Amino acid sequence: MYYSVLDIFAGAGGFSLGFQLAGADIIGAIEIDRWACETFQFNHPEAKVIQSDITTMTDEQIMTMFGKIRPNIILGGPPCQGFSICNKNSCDHKDPRNSLFEEFIRVGRLLKPQIMIMENVPNLVKARTANGELVIDIVIAKLREIGYEVNYRILDATDYGIPQIRKRLFVVASTIKLNTPFPEKTHSIMSTPDFLEAHLDKCPTLWDAISDLPEIKAREGEEECAYSKPPQNNYQRLLRAGSNKLFNHKAMNHSQRLVARFATMMWGDSTANVPDHLRPLKRNSAEFSEKTYGQNNRRMHPDRQCHTIAASFYANFVHPYMNRNFTTREGARIQSFPDWYVFKGKPTVVSHKLLQREGRVEEKYLCQYNQVGNAVPPLLAKAIAENIINQLRS
Questions:
Q1: Residue from 80, 91, 203, 367 carrying the catalytic annotation
Q2: Which of 32, 77, 90, 170 has its CA 20 to 30 A from that of 104?
Q3: CB-CB neighbours of 256 under 10 Å
């Protein structure tokens, strides 16, 4: 049977890619960011990609665009920065991004797909409204109002063979009762008795993900280049399938001082561990900054799974062996994007806060690093997709 997918709050298309890899057709996407739309369209050329703020789109516009080709499945990752800072005692009730799930539900009410899947940060299960209601309870109630069975679970990417410690919340709404709304684990990060008894595969490590990529220093690399060595393992063979070259493997233009700082760092060290004379300086000043951030520029262990690839991961991690941050392609490998998937737009942009202050909002787009970090890991999306599509078919 034919299964079609519409992705809203689509970003660069990682969620959609997983469903495509599971055999579904990606018919459309709605995304506000221009560069993310360019990436989505380039990699999903058959899809109808709409660059728009969904809150400004009327019901009639949505029905005109997608009503005749009603998708079986709607995916959505409403921006979640407001939820990210929520906990049991506090939540940013005024953050407008916290209500964008209403738009996800609106599209479902209009198009009536068999399946709706929302992805978000784990803290959404703790987030509360100003009057104390749990946001997740509201989401479930609203989906049930429009005729869906609803299940939710926090999934860890390492359980599905992605070399990254990344936990995300998935809400699955369906018009039929799913016996198993979520896929069974396929991988483990440790060779424990449970691992052996369950016949789980060993989850790849960071080095398993990137060791075959060309070894480049700071300021080196290209947006398009050749492979320099053959694949070293099955994970690399999987992600290299269908591509005869590499894209987006360009190192950042670090200063000599930053490279020297990285050179002092051992695995697990961060900016907080560097010698005093290499401490970060204040912006536009020769004075040392009094602030140190332990989560910034941490050198990753090669034989472990990577920490969560966030939107600003270019400043989070240092390569295990090279004295530089990760490239976009290395981040994409850790996220499980295949090598043929090309990210458009600039590799990096200046601070969005700075652009806002200087009135340069026309330059405020999601750079390649942002697009990679915001994405649902495609292999995790593929596991979710295969589990659901197999049940729909049966």
A1: 80
A2: 90
A3: 8
**What's the token pair of residue 144?**
């049930």
- Rounded Cα distance, 350 and 343, in Å: 18
List the one residue out of 170, 135, 171 whose CA is nearest residue 155: 170
**Is 80 a catalytic site residue?**
yes
Asked if pLDDT for residue 292 goes beyond 90, the answer is: no
Going by C-alpha positions, the residue among 144, 180, 201 that lies closest to residue 394 is: 180
The string of pLDDT tens digits covering residues 165-195 is 999 999 999 999 999 999 999 999 976 655 5
Q: With contact defined as beta carbons under 8 Å apart, do 153 and 110 qualify? A: no
Distance CA 93, CA 128 (A): 8
Domain spans of the chain?
A: 4-188+377-393, 206-374
Contacts of 71 (CB under 8 A, 6+ apart): 4, 5, 6, 27, 28, 111, 113
Number of residues that make up the chain: 394
Q: How many CA atoms are closer than 13 Å to the CA of 38, on its beta-carbon side?
A: 12
Q: What is the spatial distance between Cα 151 and Cα 157, in angstroms, rounded to a whole number?
A: 18
Q: Residue 94's CB: how many other CB atoms inside 10 A?
A: 8
Over residues 47-57, mean pLDDT: 96
Half-sphere exposure of 259 (CA within 13 A, CB side): 12
Residue 232 main-chain phi, psi, to 5 deg = -100, -15
| CATH 3.40.50.150 assigned to 4-188+377-393 | yes
For the domain 206-374, what is the CATH code? Answer: 3.90.120.10
Global pTM value? 0.91
